[in-house]
Design a protein that fits this description.
The protein is of the alpha/beta class and 551 residues long. 37% of the residues lie in helices and 19% in strands. Among the domains are: 3-254, Nucleotidyltransferase, domain 5 (2-Layer Sandwich), CATH 3.30.420.40; 335-428, Methane Monooxygenase Hydroxylase, Chain G, domain 1. The protein has a seven-stranded mixed sheet, with helices on both faces. Strands 1, 2, 3, 6, 12 and 13 form a six-stranded mixed sheet that branches. The protein binds adenosine-5'-diphosphate (ADP) and ribulose-5-phosphate. Keywords: Kinase, Transferase. Belongs to the FGGY kinase family.
């Protein structure tokens, strides 16, 4: 592209609402991030397993970051806006005002976060119905989906919330409504989290069977009766009010949104891989697994025909790449688990002090510390007698068992920095073994996978990336733009603007390979042994439970 052409380039704004922060980027037609901003968002945990946020706080953060990324820009060259967000539940009354999702009646906290596990009892009853819609969520509905949360609200906050509610939104759809005033929902959120079927629509019998018949009665107006594919333009674009708040021109195209993991998938899975020595170069796109690793990890695999993988969500039609079925494996806490293990260790204050003295992040410090103590063997071998089972927040895939707990075996009395670093390493490895476990389940059901495409905050950690390559035996592709989830959101904005004819075209133009990390095949035997131990851990945990629940 000549300098002149560059001058004329169009731009898109992508906004990504993660669990811990909101990020925005200004992205050009080739998928290059020209500006980035982020802003933390508030989280409340009023009780164990209750996690709440505020939709007003989230929207305010969206406005802050968007204004930052367009500073100094000719805003008339911005042609589209796309949002992605976590799949949290936003509750508003009939006048679109926030309603409390808590016993305290605090209406500021009107979002039940995706990782909230308050509806354990409700999801148990939903799963007992064995309703046919459950086939499309891996056979077992997760407590993190929306139906159990809605049932919890109905059963626990009837007067203060349920009876007053006018709108229940998935967070990505709340954001597109805020921007456009259009209440249409994304096919992505409804199919993945609300049991909607791309070809059959809502299933009345499911809602009646689980005790949420009131949602059927008014033709689903509270949860969505207009459904659009991700990337489709909404209404007349950005409203004057939202334009003022975001600092963007009114009327620019706003796209139907995606859940954050799915935006990450769009941002990485369609890249042109030629010239990188990757086996997937000669294979269909269905050989690629996008792994979006943030607070949680999501494993997104696509197929031409539906594949039913027990314990893995889906198959979902057109929920990520149009025309393809999607299976979504996941680990509910990954980034959050690493933080939990590191911050809870007695040597954490020492780690913080040493890392800040070197102006390094704690993870960069830990990675270099592991290199120092590894002696002659590869770093990964430091955990020969320390093993972790990572389900501290239950197992999402492939066991779909929220009763599972975390395990660590091989603890010693030492509490020094070496000990912390090795525990951190074993945790990172356990997360990678969890990915291998999910891949094996997907392959046993019919997927044929050869290459991982990693993105999200954890993909900035070279140890995390190398362990995923070594433990799965697959090369890991990292995108040219580290913030690939934002590229996915911008792809949506670009599609809505009409600058690309399809999501596929935008994906192939805007997502680019950066770095490839190959597995160290010489270490395979060691990791195969550790994987055997990994599988034994859960087997043993189940035995312990059986002993304790027996007479
Ligand atoms: N440079 C980095 N090195 C290591 N870990 C990182 C880095 N940046 C972010 N992370 C980790 O990634 C996780 C958050 O990822 P992110 O994609 O921002 O999450 P979310 O989308 O859930 O808000 C955190 O656990 C954080 O510690
Ligand atoms: O269920 C999910 C996607 O379907 C995600 O786990 C959820 O949206 C949270 O994402 P993140 O860990 O990036 O904050």
């Amino acid at each position: 592209m000549s300098g002149g052409e560059q001058e004329m380039s169009s731009y898109y704004v992508g906004v990504d609402v993660g669990t811990g922060s909101v990020r925005a980027a200004l992205v050009d037609q080739r998928g290059v991030l020209v500006a980035f901003a982020d802003q933390p968002i508030k989280k409340w945990e009023p009780q164990f397993n209750h996690h709440e946020q505020s939709s007003e706080d989230i929207w305010a953060a969206c406005c802050v970051v968007t204004k930052k990324v367009i500073q100094g820009m000719d805003i008339n060259r911005i042609r589209g806006l796309g949002f992605d967000a976590t799949c949290s539940l936003v509750v508003l009354d009939t006048h679109f005002c926030p309603l409390p999702v808590n016993n305290e009646g605090d209406s500021h906290r009107n979002v039940i976060m995706w990782l909230d596990h308050r509806a354990v009892n409700q999801v148990g009853r939903i799963n007992k119905t064995k309703h046919s819609v459950l086939q499309y969520v891996g056979g077992v509905m997760s407590v993190e989906m929306q139906a159990p949360k809605l049932l919890w609200l109905k059963e626990n906050l009837r007067e203060t919330c349920w009876d007053k509610a006018g709108h229940f939104f998935d967070l990505p759809d709340f954001l597109s409504w805020k921007a456009t005033g259009v209440t249409a929902r994304s096919l992505c959120s409804l199919v993945c989290k609300w049991t909607y079927s791309a070809d059959k629509g809502w299933d009345d019998s499911f809602w009646k069977m689980v005790g949420l018949e009131d949602l059927v009665a008014d033709n689903y107006s509270k949860i969505g009766n207009q459904v659009l594919p991700p990337g489709a333009p909404l209404g007349s674009g950005l409203t004057p009010e939202a334009a003022r708040e975001l600092g963007l021109p009114p009327g620019i195209a706003v796209a139907t949104s995606l859940i954050d993991a799915h935006a990450g998938g769009l941002g990485v899975i369609g890249a042109d891989v030629r010239g990188h020595g990757l086996v997937c170069e000669g294979q269909p796109v269905t050989s690629r697994l996008a792994v979006i690793c943030g607070t949680s990890s999501c494993h997104m695999g696509i197929s031409k025909d539906p594949i039913f993988v027990p314990g893995v969500w889906g198959p979902y039609f057109s929920a990520m790449v149009p025309g393809f079925w999607l299976n979504e494996g996941g680990q509910s806490v990954t980034g959050k688990l690493i933080e939990h293990m590191v911050q809870g260790h007695a040597a954490f204050p020492e780690l913080q002090a040493k890392a800040s003295a070197r102006c390094q992040s704690i993870y960069a410090y830990l990675n270099s510390h592991l290199d120092l103590i590894k002696k002659a063997q590869p770093v990964g071998f430091l955990t020969v007698d320390l093993h972790v089972w990572p389900d501290f927040h239950g197992n999402r895939s492939p066991l779909a068992d929220l009763t599972l707990k975390g395990m660590v075996t091989g603890l010693k009395l030492s509490q020094d920095l070496d000990d912390l670093a090795i525990l951190y390493l074993a945790t990172v490895q356990a997360i990678a073994f969890g990915t291998r476990f999910i891949i094996e389940a997907m392959e046993a059901a019919g997927h044929s996978l050869s290459t991982l495409f990693l993105c999200g905050g954890l993909s900035k950690n070279p140890l995390f990336v190398q362990m995923h390559a070594d433990i799965t035996g697959m090369p890991v592709v990292l995108s040219q733009e580290v913030e690939s989830v934002l590229v996915g959101a911008a792809i949506l904005g670009a599609c809505a603007s009409g600058d690309f004819t399809s999501v596929q075209e935008a994906m192939s133009e805007m997502s680019k390979v950066g770095k490839v990390v190959f597995p160290r095949h010489e270490d395979k035997k060691y990791y195969d042994k550790k994987y055997q131990v990994f599988l034994k851990l859960v087997e043993h945990q189940k035995e312990y439970s059986a002993i304790m629940s027996g007479d």
